[in-house]
């Protein structure tokens, strides 16, 4: 239903009652707004009752309106342009308390990530990274920040990390041409999903590498190629992406890998601390 929601509404439109046609037409013409409206607000927008909106959702095959709303949000997440995202946020975030609203939304996304991420998949991903001949990391666009952060710490923990620069597809393939069975490929992408990341993940999968996908749901295009699917909830905050929960998941991955490789890290960090002190990398209190 998620992928075909708008098509399903269009198909059933001729058979709807007058009030349900009003709801259907509003969703079809303003889906980016409808996805973040309560049943009451949607009803007010088209001149019907809240209960009528709920009945519409049930007629569409959902248990209630919240399920229809989640389906619609999932459907449009990868469709909205940056400008549309900003317009949607303008209507869903109260301007008088942005700090409180955004931080509480991020807290909720971390909570949901904790509930939904598979611990067995997480533990298996840790073992696959530790046993891999080479570990490749790729994240494009806003996910590039996450990939850079993960690479920074994995280079301290491991000796075999390759950070794939998200340039053009030719450049990405050039960096990945030697990937093979026994390697691990960490693919990071969140809506709007990067096409280059998807193609690179498919190439790594076809080359026999173990795929660790860090993404937002089982419906992510990365899921079809993943061996370990690590789900972290994300959302749009105006034109920007909320990546707090994905970053928290990556932090957990770094900590788990560090604890498994504690002796080596201690030696590496001791050398780094000496180098940092000798070269005055950090300001001291002296």
Question: Can you characterise this structure?
Answer:
Helix 4 packs across helix 5, helix 8 crosses helix 13 and helix 10 packs parallel to helix 13. This protein starts with a helix and ends in an 8-residue tail after the last helix. The protein is an alpha/beta fold and 286 residues long. The chain has two domains: 72 residues, Orthogonal Bundle (Arc Repressor Mutant, subunit A); 169 residues, Glucose-6-phosphate isomerase like protein, domain 1 (Rossmann fold), CATH 3.40.50. Strands 2-1-3-4-5 form a five-stranded parallel β-sheet, with helices on both faces. The longest helix is centred in the middle third of the chain and has 19 residues. Strand 3, helix 12 and strand 4 form a beta-alpha-beta unit. It contains 14 helices and seven strands.
Distance between the termini: 63 Å
Instruction: Give the helix/strand class.
Output: alpha/beta
Helix content: 55-70%
Radius of gyration, whole Å: 23 Å
Order of helices and strands: HHHHHHHHHEHEHEHEEEEHH
Output the number of helix runs.
Answer: 14
Number of strands: 7
- Average of pLDDT: 86
What is the level 1 CATH name of the largest domain?
Answer: Alpha Beta
Share of residues in strands = 5-15%
Largest sheet: 5 strands, parallel
Instruction: Give the second-level CATH assignment, the architecture of the largest domain.
Output: 3-Layer(aba) Sandwich
Show unreliable segments: none
Question: Could you give the order of strands across the largest sheet?
Answer: 2-1-3-4-5
- Which geometry do the CA atoms define? elongated
């Amino acid at each position: 239903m998620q992928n075909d929601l708008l098509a399903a509404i269009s198909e059933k439109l001729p058979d709807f009652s007058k009030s349900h046609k009003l709801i259907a037409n509003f969703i079809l013409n303003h889906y980016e707004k409808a996805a973040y409206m309560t049943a009451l607000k949607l009803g007010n927008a088209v001149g019907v009752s809240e209960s009528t909106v709920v009945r519409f959702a049930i007629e569409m095959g959902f248990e209630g309106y919240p399920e229809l709303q989640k389906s619609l949000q999932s459907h449009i997440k990868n469709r909205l342009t940056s400008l549309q995202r900003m317009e949607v946020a303008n209507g869903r975030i109260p301007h008088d308390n942005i700090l409180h609203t955004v931080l509480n939304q991020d807290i909720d996304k971390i909570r949901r990530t904790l509930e939904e991420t598979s611990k067995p998949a997480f533990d298996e991903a840790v073992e696959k990274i530790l046993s891999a001949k080479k570990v490749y990391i790729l994240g494009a666009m806003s996910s590039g920040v996450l990939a850079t952060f993960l690479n920074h710490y994995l280079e301290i923990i491991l000796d075999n990390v390759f950070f794939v620069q998200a340039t053009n597809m030719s450049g990405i393939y050039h960096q990945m041409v030697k990937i093979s069975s026994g390697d691990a490929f960490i693919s990071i992408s969140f809506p709007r999903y990067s096409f280059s990341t998807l193609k690179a993940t498919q190439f790594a999968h076809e080359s026999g590498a173990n795929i660790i996908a860090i993404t937002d749901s089982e419906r992510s295009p990365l899921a079809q190629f993943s061996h370990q699917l690590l789900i972290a909830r994300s959302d749009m905050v105006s034109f920007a992406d909320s990546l707090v929960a994905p970053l928290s998941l990556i932090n957990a991955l770094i900590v788990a890998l560090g604890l498994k490789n504690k002796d080596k890290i201690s030696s590496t960090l001791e050398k780094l601390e000496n180098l940092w002190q000798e070269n005055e990398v950090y300001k001291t209190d002296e």
